[in-house]
């Protein structure tokens, strides 16, 4: 039944979309708050994947259980990267920040990707657990446990982030700094610390994406660039603003890609998503989900 | 309370303030008047830490401010209502007010302070959930003032509060400012192009022209002086002298 | 003509003359190759410079135009059209691309224009990668008659042409308008400058020359993946080179390109595998510590020297 196949495909589209959404939220957090374009964001995903992989293959710890650990280590890494490479850009205004952060993060991507190749070789790695193949059957549709859990975790994390941004003082400080950093500092907000933590959170999100990615796909040291690009596309599709919108745009992209396989075939599925993206850029450049 | 001593401030290579000295005593309202571009806002930026003086000192209650970052200066009790209000446009009225109480020592009193702000600016209570970017000019200025008051400052700096606001509203805001000064003993520095309003509200005034203090006197005397009248109130020799 | 201008033209003339006769003396292909690359980088960076450095519209997707010029040139050339016509067609096709995707992009301001152009570059990369996934091989007869020397001259000619055109534009009313837009777009509009038209012109010139540069690349490379000239590195390199040399100057891209190629080669030769890593580190260091590029650094050094010579008194 082609209809069933299509629905199954849509379901997989949502699963992939949740990864798109998760990685995009991280990128949009940094871009929205401090106008830094971090092209190395996808590389952080890659590092997250490897951390998860090594914890599993060397110590045998279940990859879902190590997610908090992966996130914590990427949080730390992100903090160090921010302090070392991005903090000095804060004194510039928006356009210079974008240009410089783009170039700096590009340099970082070159360095980190190639260090990864030296350390871990270009071989593919993937995590296979005892339950990797297990599937939840519902109405003749298959929901792999691993992906289902991944979707749940991603959604919960986004929800938690949303609560952090709206209900806590620190989250409000982040939002204030993103709207007017000088005014924020006049309120007693230490903007440099706000930027640091935002960047670190963004890295932690990339880490989680990486951990989830490794369970379903093969990771190599060079996947970073493609994922940065994917994240960028989703961010622009959604527009800057609520992270819920960005996450949703990720799901949407995943859906669109999976549907278009039926119409244009697998090799062009990305192109359909991109065409839509161009149309959005032309007719609604502020994004689909902004006010 | 605030002692500024011979500061020189630059924007890059361009000098804006030349040897500015002034002082503000506790509990008083001091006006800083001058025309556009004279350097008034620059002076406030130097006090609040957004700009650093190249030389000279700024002391608040004896503590040196000129090396401190803005957020620490706020924690010391110096708060500025920036020019144009600089509200957080996508946050609501209440969120803007809450951010005003960000510094830890005032955060625990947030609810009480909020009650007080709503008393002096009832319109803010009415519009509490409204997004700041959609408020009218006068409401925005009130919110900006309220937001700064949330941090329970001991020195409040007002930067061009009257800009773009209807005269009736300006009068009302400055009356409120005077009330707050009296009821809370809050020291206030008013920076204004609206010389009338500033000198009527303040007790003392400094006149600043092209980056230098040119006159300093009691507010009512300044208001009556021929110089100020001619330069700032448009009352030239055609209209007669003081 | 002032004496200063005369001297400058003389200097430029000498340099160009030297570059012209160089292939007769240097027989090693390696050096000619390197110089060719330098000229190519100057061309693409100058093309970026007119929109990004002078008109102030920072564009991080120049690879879209570079790649387009390369693609069209290559396809036409391989199918039989003479190289120079294909090159021109490549440039013109880039103009069409600029009209289609660049014009709407110009509606975006500042930061959004920047990411918009990056996004468009990404689209071109992925789309071309999907439609033309394979390698572009040079047909046998072209390969047999392949000679580096004409390509060297072509690249040199393009560099001279691009630099000359930029120079003329910058010193004309058009250039003045562009700089005004860069400094303060609103103020420029208030003085009666049709900012949109100027930006469009800057975009057109920028795209055209980037397309020609792409065509030169397609003419020069024996075989490469069709999507290679669309890769993002071709968008970031002009940015970096303009950075190193100094944006908004005419000599900046030249200095930057020379430094960039020289350093890259140096690292590749001496460091082998680790070269990319060291290169990446250098990349980062330049941006963090030399925000104004070498020209600004040179300016600061000379100011410092003047101050030292004149002693402790204020100038």
Sequence-ordered SSE layout with sheet pairings:
The complex is a heterotrimer of chains A (291), B (242) and C (315).
Chain A: H1 2-34, H2 41-59, H3 67-86, H4 94-120, E1 135-138, E2 141-144, H5 145-167, H6 169-179, H7 181-186, H8 191-216, H9 224-238, H10 243-264, H11 269-283
Antiparallel strand pairs in A: 1-2
Helix pairs in contact in A: 1-5, 1-8, 1-9, 1-10, 2-3, 2-8, 2-9, 3-8, 5-6, 5-8, 6-8, 9-10, 10-11
Chain B: E1 2-11, E2 14-24, E3 29-33, H1 40-48, E4 55-60, E5 63-64, H2 70-76, E6 78-81, H3 93-100, H4 104-107, H5 110-120, H6 122-126, H7 137-149, E7 155-159, H8 167-184, E8 187-192, H9 195-201, E9 204-209, E10 212-218, H10 219-224, H11 226-232
Parallel strand pairs in B: 3-8, 3-9, 6-7, 7-8
Antiparallel strand pairs in B: 1-2, 1-4, 4-5, 9-10
Chain C: H1 3-25, H2 29-54, H3 63-78, H4 83-106, H5 110-131, E1 135-136, H6 140-144, H7 148-170, H8 173-183, H9 185-190, H10 195-220, E2 224-225, H11 233-245, H12 252-271, H13 275-289, H14 293-310
Antiparallel strand pairs in C: 1-2
Helix pairs in contact in C: 1-7, 2-7, 2-10, 2-11, 2-12, 3-4, 3-5, 3-10, 4-5, 4-10, 7-10, 8-10, 11-12, 12-13
Describe this structure in words.
The complex is a heterotrimer of chains A (291), B (242) and C (315). Chain A has one domain: Orthogonal Bundle (ABC transporter involved in vitamin B12 uptake, BtuC), CATH 1.10.3470. In chain A, 75% of the residues lie in helices and 3% in strands. Chain A is built from eleven helices and two strands. The radius of gyration of chain A is 19 Å and the shape is globular. In chain B, the strands form two sheets. Chain B has a six-stranded mixed β-sheet with strand order 6-7-8-3-9-10, with helices on both faces. In chain B, strands 2-1-4-5 form a four-stranded antiparallel β-sheet, covered by helices on one side. Chain B contains eleven helices and ten strands. In chain C, strands 1-2 form a two-stranded antiparallel sheet. In chain C, helix 3 runs parallel beside helix 5 (110-131). Chain C is globular. Chain C has one domain: ABC transporter involved in vitamin B12 uptake, BtuC (Orthogonal Bundle). Classes of the chains: A mainly alpha (291), B alpha/beta (242), C mainly alpha (315). At the A-C interface, helix 4, helix 9 and helix 11 of A face helix 4, helix 5, helix 11 and helix 13 of C.
